[in-house]
Amino acid sequence: MNMRSFFTTLVALALYFTGEAWAQTAVTVDLSVKHQIIRGFGGVDITWNPNGLISSANRQLVFGNGQNQLGFTIMRVYLGVSQSEWSQTLANAKWASENGILVFASPWHPPTSMRQNMTRPSDGVKYYRLNPNSYAAYTDHINAYIKYMYDNGVNLYAVSIQNEPDYGINEYDEGWCVWTQEEMVNYMRDHAGNIDSRVKVISPETFQYEAWSGSNGQAKPIFTAMLNDAGARANTDIYGTHFYGVYRPSLSDPALSFQWPRFEEIGRPAGKELWMTEVYTPNNHDGNIWDASKEGDAMKTARMIHYSKVAGGFSTWVWWYIHRFYGVLHDGKALENTTALGANGQVTKRGWITAQYSKFIRPGFHRVETSPSRFGSSDDTRTFISAYQGDDGTVVIVAVNMNSSAQSVNFSVSEAVGTMEAWRTSGTENLAKQADINVSGKAFSASLPGRSVTTFVGSRENTSSSSSSEDASSSSSSENVSSSSSENASSSSSSSSNEETPILSTSHSPLATSQTPEYYNLRGKKVYGTLPSGVYIEKKQGMPSKIFVVK
Fold this sequence. Notes:
- This protein is of the alpha/beta class.
- It contains 13 helices and 24 strands.
- The strands form five sheets. Strands 1, 12, 13, 14, 15, 16, 17, 18, 19 and 20 form a ten-stranded mixed sheet that branches.
- The chain is globular.
């Protein structure tokens, strides 16, 4: 058999065992283009569920950043109607504050004396609202809570005005307080400025980020009304929302409903931030489901986090219950007529996927530009890429491969970076450490196994030369998500490198200096970590030693 026939046979074998040729996609990471600041990842601590208050043992697992810990940095707590309720979350909030965790609070109800029972004329639905005559008293109530927390050792970072004001309609005592759009604007304009200046003020946190509000979910009429009113805008530091129903696959581009163009025009340039403050979606199915055909597939969590950062420009990702079967820690329970897929206290797949971000993208990092930020024909088979940078020079790249087949990616970084660590969560791995990747100048290649999340962590080799330019870029309006993000319809097609790498080429890899084997795919690219299905060439000391197939 001549060499041409030999390699033809190899390619045929690759196609037979993998079902497709090895396509390589070039992704550029531009560290000079900085987008939104990242405040962190977290969850709620609340008394309503038996496991709602996180235990002292579990809080270290969730908020610690050691081995097999999740690295969360945000705790959301319940702002109750009285001091007796405030005390219920005090111990955990104080522990969090003492350990550098960002703590913010959300109210569901005003005190009973401030409520006004209402009936909706159109259908007779009963609900209650905050009596407009009690707006000043409600501000005093919030300020009393802030003082209580500070007096008891909690450095409260922010308070919101209301949890889900657009979803509270129910019988009087079974739901929570309802606000109209006009009422939200009026309160934010006329009273929010009187809230204790030690904390940031978060807008009312809507249920759905108005993803079904028209204009592909980009109109955001409630938020836009608060943003357009100069007085309300001046008194709002953060626009907070929940992510229920935000992902809309029926749109021409699912990224659209995560975007808010008006905020990019006047909100972000004014120093405002977007926070995602609650979610337990894609749905309330078991957090350990790992099946692309199932609605509760844990991989969808990674896709949602990606869209929140790249398409939406959000600074936070905050779960609802931390300790629940659909959360990041399993409670050993299950939906009715289903079987629990985890033991009590076990980190779920959703938890490990979140940790692919939270352990490495630390508070104060900025998202930086990636091009493309996704590639593939549809969201269920796409690969999503986002990148982040810390002021200390740390560079983090998160690659989400929704495709069942491996994807080969050539990364090119705008500045030289050192060795990249790699960590992966897949169907068989939980934040598993992979082999380090040697970066050749500003470039490296990696194979992303099918249905996996891989995080690459490295450091700029020269952290002093670019500090001034970074400071300049972070203060400018270049943090415009809608214009500089590649999350649009035109980016849906696959982007591949035009460079053809010869088989067995060693041009991008130095010769090995030991007998430790290295593995290359049929396009001559080095593959690190667990080898997905395919045909590989093993090399020792830079020389081919054998060819083998991984099924």
